[in-house]
What we know:
A: mainly alpha; Fumarate Reductase Cytochrome B subunit; about 0% strand; globular; B: mainly alpha; four-stranded parallel sheet; three-stranded parallel sheet; 7 strands; disordered C terminus
Amino acid sequence: MDTTELLYWARNTGPNLALTLLVLGVLLRLFEIFKLGRRPDFARRRPKSAGNGWKTVFTRTFAASGPLTESPLVYLSSYTFHICLLFISIFHIPLIGFLRILSPYIGTEYSPHVINAFTGVSLLALLILLLARITHKVRRFLSTTGDYLAWLLCFLPILTGLFTYNSLGLSADAALAYHLLSVELLLALLPFTPLFHAISWLIARWYTGDFYGRRGVPS
Amino acid sequence: MSSAFDNAYSILKNSLDAPSAAYFASCVNCGLCAEACLFYTETGDVKNTPIYKVEPLRRVWEQEHTTLGRLGKLLHLAQRITDQDLADWAPLAYDTCTLCSRCAMVCPTGVDPSYLIRKFREGLVAAGHAPEDLVKASENAITAGSPGAVQWSEVAAKLKEIEQQYNYSVPVDKEGANFLVLLSSWEILNFPAYLGSLGRILNASRYTWTLSSHVFDGTNAGAHLGHPDIARQLVQRIVDVAEGLKVECVITPECGHAYTALRWDGPNLIGRGYHFDVKHVLEVLDGMRRSGRIRLKGTLPQRLTYHDPCQLSRRGGLQEQPRNLLRYLAPEFREMDDYGTANWCCGGGGGVFANSRADEVRIKVFDKKRRQIEHTGVNTVVTACANCRMVMQEAFQHYGMNVNLQDITEIVAQHLVEPSPDEGGGERRRR
């Protein structure tokens, strides 16, 4: 398969396959969680405890002061990476292209400096997170192949995106093909790696918030 | 594989529910829960990372409840758990976890490792890997009515002493009372002043109350052990007596886990709500003071702090009540650095204090609480859990700390305004 064929595959079959795997995988994983169910709670809940699940979904976004001071690097890198990833995803050029089909009013003029800055910071944050995983004895002890795979799946699209956007190294077609393939790999494997936390965090936080909220405990 | 192991595996598999699955699916092994666990911070042992303590349970979830995991098991690619794994992990789940849930408060993805440890203990006990002391305590609770094998005759003897000392009659098996008072073995044997004080306060409040000769110990060793059948039996006994006596409310002992077991776990163990309320004595005392049922006078001159029992504050929602009382009675009350839902455990909850195998590590991890207390600069620590009190008493002695330990009920009783005869006053002793 030459570069043109690879790019064609990455632009046509690849996204379809990746999105199919993503959607089916996420549905399967959600089914695996919810089919287990939860027993009813017969204990009389505290007054005004309704809605605590949703409250925790929101409040847990902000770090508790203790862990923040104990592991500031992990928190700051995580926040930075997630915020940058959100930005990069929103301004991902293929996504913009897709959105422009839906609405011609969606603009395309973005400062390359801004895009590059977010991409660079994302890569730096990811490298710090990897370093934090390797050097900290607890994280190194806990980490599995899946955790490192998840890291790689996040790192590659951003790195190849940087190369593609700035026409570095490879030919434009090859760079774009690798970038698209890395994005497709990320999407296809998201449900089956620890990256699934991108979806399940909402459920986990809700359950914890509801459990403690019923008892009158802010969590 | 032994049949005990098969049974344990089946229990572990069936104990997993949607929250457990969401927790395992959300963990990214960031290790932040380690910094929240005093067994890690004080020992530096990575195995004490909360989420690692349930690793065998995670494998059961993966291999039994996920498609990829089941496929891995089918192809013999998955690492199956063995009875030896359960034996190896048992000390992590029983000796170095107090079920304090501090880890649950810090996880960015919302994972609650303590929720999983409670389920894991169910499998460990079925496999025969629970600590002997906890098993014995549970047997005592079933056969003698108390984990410490305290008999009603011993309680009755203590009641006589209390009646002499406090000058009132202790009502027993009285139908239709407002409150049924439950005790813990620690209170009966080591802190009889608790009941003496509580009786004085309840009498002053003009509420009626009673003890039961059938159920006097409100602790639940089955909940510690992770044995739902034993826990259910112990809850059912209390429910039967409370509903038989037609009391309005059961006051749990000054024991954090007894409160959790009866107030929050109990209805789910027996599969229905109660026909009575369950309150910790903190709720009762604060409620009576605020409603004017009891009046307090004077203040404590010394600087003091409050140790939050984890099961009351972080797992029970009782953070304001003790503080309302202490702010009223102690102008020099000051908080520790981390308090309320962020408090650090004394190191002896969740059955750890009753588990002699964990004595050494329990004393070691108390160093966290020692530093916290010393940082406040107080010489008095107040708490509302007999178990925490015992743990701290022993640790103060070990660390040579010159700190007084006080119980909040006794403090309230010391500042109680006795009602005048016109106001009535509950059960006065006839002489």
